[in-house]
Known about the structure:
This protein is α+β, with helices and mostly antiparallel strands.
Amino acid sequence: MCQPHPTDERPGVRLEDGDDAHAHDHAAWTRRDFLRRMGLATVGAGFVASGLPVGVFGQAPVLDVLARTETDRVLVLVQLSGGNDGLNTLVPVSNDVYYQKRGALAIPATNALALDAPGGGASGWALHPSLASLAPLWNDGRMGLVHAVGYANHNRSHFVSTDNWTSGSGGGTTMPYGWAGRYLLADRDPGAPDDFYRTSPPALALGSTAQMFASAEGNVSVAPLAFTTNIRALVERGVVYDPGGLPTDQPFAAPVKYLRDTVNVTLGYVVRFVEATNAAPNRATYPNATAGSLASQLALAARVVRGGLSPRILSVSLGGFDTHANQANAHAGLLAQLADALRAFFDDLAADGLDRRVVAMTFSEFGRTVTANASGGTDHGSAAPVLLLGPAVEGGFFGTAPNLVNDQDRDGVGPTTDYRSLYATLLERWFNVPAADVDALLGRSTPRLGFLPSTPTARDSPDAATSGDALLAPAPNPFTERTALTLRTAQGGPARLEVFDALGRRVAHLFDGTLPPGEHLFDLDGSTLAPGLYLARLDTLRGTASRPVVRVR
């Protein structure tokens, strides 16, 4: 059984605390809270696509900069809700303490999937057998495993831990708002055009049940799919309601304009989302993709990326990890869902090279206790491993492995890697946020981890065809009549620049010949193109690069 219940732990962290205490802790912790604290929950909308509720975030200061970042990179956050048992996910097969304290719940070393150590040989760690679908990603160097991620002074509450993970707080430090939102608020671009947000939502929560997300101005509720007449007006005129024509000296003018703008943008998202995902079918089979499942969420996520919506952050989730009783079969089933869905997702994207634009990160609000409880489960712990996946990821182990003797935290796995190091690494090395700004955002300087290279390379730079060749972001984008495409080549040579529609049909042939080294500007006349998504593609002897281009009315 667990240690006596410490006074600083929240009631409900163990099954023996009682059903009421446990239910109360869950009631205070929801996915909507997670998104709000991360700085994503803002003026947006809820609608249903492919049987899944979709939360759209946009037209808010906290996302302005991220939305306009010169990158097509995407971070997929996979939330394992409830507190995943890290020791039965990444199994310490050579650790006697684990087997002594887990008893029948321990994963036998003969059943686990052994992982090689860097440089070869046994690492002493293995994957749960249900994660077999991810083994090829590990073998190909596309999966990183970060040991014992968490923070000090953990009180093991679902609510408090999620709040800390998403705000950058913990260990005696309290930070306001979301870790992403703080940076974006400081560097927002006030010149972002409405059409940009109407066509390219910067963040999406797939499978979210929230219909509308809180903003500094309050909540506004709309039902997008019911406005069939309004959607027709949006397609024809670009807006549903004219945001102008209101008397500025009347007190109702500002809130009415706000409501009109919100409805215009909301309906624009619905139209844009449906157009993009309908034109981008999946190219892999997702096992057990039932309604609401993680597989169905990731299948939709792949269509979002393929459709050119280009959100910087996609959020998906898998629940059920609060395994206080009868854990063995339930946890095995959850890990199988996770592995099969992630493998299908990356196979899907790899079919046309889109996987290089994506990094996926799993996380859970805490791990579980080292000791199994009397009900065949585990109770709330502290640190747990994090999985990072994608072609840009440097495969291998990161952080310091816990030994379960000196690194225990009240019968939980003590943190050896502060979770803010993951955020710092992703912000600086994936989204190219300056290092000083990252430290200011997190309120501290945290070590960067090696799961992403410290300098851009062909491996992790999706904007470059290969060394020296790049297709820069179109400007303006979205555009109404014309936009400029710039390609850069260090070596010169043969090059071809074309534009394709969402169905893969070539709609413009801008160049096919030989270029000298340097930057070259090409004009795209889109006056004859229908509003929607297009893809500009550069082909050289050294590779291919592409950029989404959106025409609006």
